[in-house]
Amino acid sequence: MLLVIEAMNKALRRVPAWPLYPLGALPVLWLFWQGVQGGLGVDPAKAIEHRLGLWGLWLLIAGLAVTPLGRFAGLRLIKFRRAIGLLAFFYILTHLLVWLVLDVQIPAQIWADIVKRPYITIGMAAFVMMVPLALTSNNWSLRKLGPVRWRRLHRLTYILVPLGAVHFVMVVKGWQMEPFYYLGIVLVLLVLRLVPTAIPARRRALKS
Ligand code: HEM
C-alpha cells in the first residue's frame, strides 16, 4: 500500500494544479447547455440549482479530505487544495445566482426567503463564510495576513462545510438517507483532525 501511495505522490508531483480550474468549470457550462437544449426535464432551473448545490458540496468535502488523506494515508494533495476550494466557491456562487435569477426572481422575496426559510438562512450563512476564504485564497493574501492569521481565518471551513451539509439535510423532502451520508462524512473528516497523527509518525519511523 505504501508503495502505491508513493507512486501516486510521485505522479501527482508532475501534475500541475492550474488545469483543475478550466476542467472544473466545464461541467457548469455543460449543465447550462443541457438546460438550454431541453435535456434537464420540465424544470431546468431547479435541476441546475440542485446539481450545482450537490457538486459544490462534493468539492467542499474533497477540500476537507485533503489534510486527513495526507496525515493518515500519506497522500500529498495539498497543492490542489486551493483550486478545489475556489471551485467549490464558484459552484456555490453559481448555485446562489441560479436561485436568485432563475428561481426566486422577485427582489423583495429574496430577503424574505433568507430570513423566513431556515434552510436558506443556513445555506446563506455558509456562503457568506466562503467569501473571505475565496478572497484570500491567493499568495498575496497569504503573505499579507501571515500564515498564522491566514490559517485561523481558513478554519471557517470547519463551520461552513457542516452548515452546507445541514442545509442539504433540510432541503430534502421526506425521509432520505443521502444528505445524512454527506453530513456523516463531513463529521468524520472533522473528527479526524482531532486524532493525533500516530500513523504517519510510525510510517516515518519505518522509513528511516
Ligand atoms: C455551502 C453552501 C451550500 C451548499 C453546500 C449547498 C448545497 C445544496 C444541495 C446539496 C442542495 C440539494 C441538491 C439536491 O437536491 O440534489 C441544495 C439545494 C438548494 N439550495 Fe443550496 N447549498 C448552499 C448554499 C445555498 C445558498 C446560499 C442558497 C440561497 C440563498 C441555496 C439555496 C438552495 C435552494 C433554493 C435549493 C433547492 C431547494 C428546493 O428543492 O426547493 N443554497 N443546496
UniProtKB/TrEMBL annotation:
Q: What keywords sit in the KW lines? A: Cell membrane, Electron transport, Flavoprotein, FMN, Heme, Iron, Membrane, Metal-binding, Transmembrane, Transmembrane helix, Transport
Family annotation (InterPro entries): Fe3_Rdtase_TM_dom, MsrQ-like
Free-text comment on the cofactor: Binds 1 FMN per subunit. Binds 1 heme b (iron(II)-protoporphyrin IX) group per subunit.
Looking at the record's lineage, which domain of life comes first? Bacteria
Q: Where found?
A: Cell membrane; Membrane
Topology relative to the membrane: Multi-pass membrane protein
Q: Does the keyword Transcription regulation apply?
A: no
Identify the residues that the record assigns to the Ferric oxidoreductase domain, covering every copy: 53-164
Spell out the molecular function terms from Gene Ontology: electron transfer activity; FMN binding; heme binding; metal ion binding; oxidoreductase activity, acting on diphenols and related substances as donors
Identify which cofactors the protein needs according to its UniProt entry. FMN; heme b
Question: What does the entry give for GO biological process?
Answer: protein repair
One GO cellular component assignment for this chain's record is: plasma membrane
Q: Transmembrane ranges?
A: 15-33, 53-72, 84-102, 114-135, 156-175, 181-199
This molecule's function is given as: Part of the MsrPQ system that repairs oxidized periplasmic proteins containing methionine sulfoxide residues (Met-O), using respiratory chain electrons. Thus protects these proteins from oxidative-stress damage caused by reactive species of oxygen and chlorine generated by the host defense mechanisms. MsrPQ is essential for the maintenance of envelope integrity under bleach stress, rescuing a wide series of structurally unrelated periplasmic proteins from methionine oxidation.
Q: How does it assemble?
A: Heterodimer of a catalytic subunit (MsrP) and a heme-binding subunit (MsrQ).
| Recorded family membership | Belongs to the MsrQ family.
- What this protein is called in its record is Protein-methionine-sulfoxide reductase heme-binding subunit MsrQ
* Organism of this sequence: Aliiruegeria lutimaris
Source lineage: Bacteria, Pseudomonadati, Pseudomonadota, Alphaproteobacteria, Rhodobacterales
Which gene specifies this protein's sequence?
msrQ
